[in-house]
Specification:
heterodimer; A: mainly beta; B: mainly beta; 48% strand
Chain lengths: 114, 114
């Protein structure tokens, strides 16, 4: 089955700096890779996703890149702000006979210091 | 519009008690997922419904865990004879269709077994 590894587990940056979180996946058949932001006491919220037919996608300060050959994808946040502080999860869609399910990484706790 | 709603938000159970956790998905969403999230970890897949059909229950930890979605809308996750290791946040998510469509999460039910 699919396995997703995420690094780093914690990341601390100064406000205005960039933050990069990296994930690898094992199943070459996976074709959908979302990123979620989770704040304390809340459920994960989708912030951006990418499908396997593109290599990069941007949405304002957030971008995701995908390297299918190497089976890794990354989240890039530019001009970080204190409100970006949260736990971020990557995920990959694991395809099976009964449809697909998201397999999540272990999470990265991002702290943006003002 | 309303998002995914879960109740109760918090549940404390004594070891050995049965609990029932409710999920109201976004109206019209065909797919419904249950995930378990231990403290400091990523969500772990439990089970998946397409309408009222439970297509994948491979993630349920034991036969004490049971999920249903009898009318293809509201879903209930039941845990019988709770044990301390069942303590976690239980997340429900729904999506419009099966596969690589965005998954929308509720805020979860935090279960504490004492």
């Amino acid at each position: 089955g699919e396995n997703v590894e995420q690094h780093p587990s914690t990341l601390s940056v100064q406000e205005g700096d960039s933050a990069v979180i990296k994930c690898t996946y094992s199943d070459s058949a996976s074709n959908y890779f979302p990123w979620y932001k989770q704040e304390l006491g809340k459920g994960p919220q989708l912030i951006i996703d990418i499908r396997s037919n593109v290599g990069e996608k941007k949405d304002q300060r957030i971008a995701v890149t995908l390297n299918k050959t190497a089976k890794h994808f990354s989240l890039h946040i530019t001009e970080t702000q204190p409100e970006d502080s949260a736990v971020y999860f990557c995920a990959a869609l694991s395809l099976g006979n009964q449809g697909g399910k998201l397999i999540f990484g272990q999470g990265t706790e991002l702290s943006v210091k003002p | 519009g309303a998002g995914v709603s879960q109740s109760p938000r918090y549940k404390v159970a004594k070891r050995g008690q049965d609990v029932a956790l409710r999920c109201d998905p976004i109206s019209g969403h065909v797919s419904l997922f249950w995930y378990q999230q231990a403290l400091g970890q990523g969500p772990e897949f439990l089970t998946y419904f397409q309408n009222e059909a439970q297509l994948d229950k491979s993630g349920l930890p034991s036969d004490r865990f049971f999920a249903e979605r009898p009318e293809g809308s509201v879903s209930t996750l039941k845990i019988q004879r709770t044990q301390q290791e069942d303590s976690a946040v239980y997340l429900c998510a729904s999506s419009l269709v099966q596969g690589n469509s965005p998954l929308h999460f509720g805020n979860g039910t935090r279960l504490t077994v004492t």
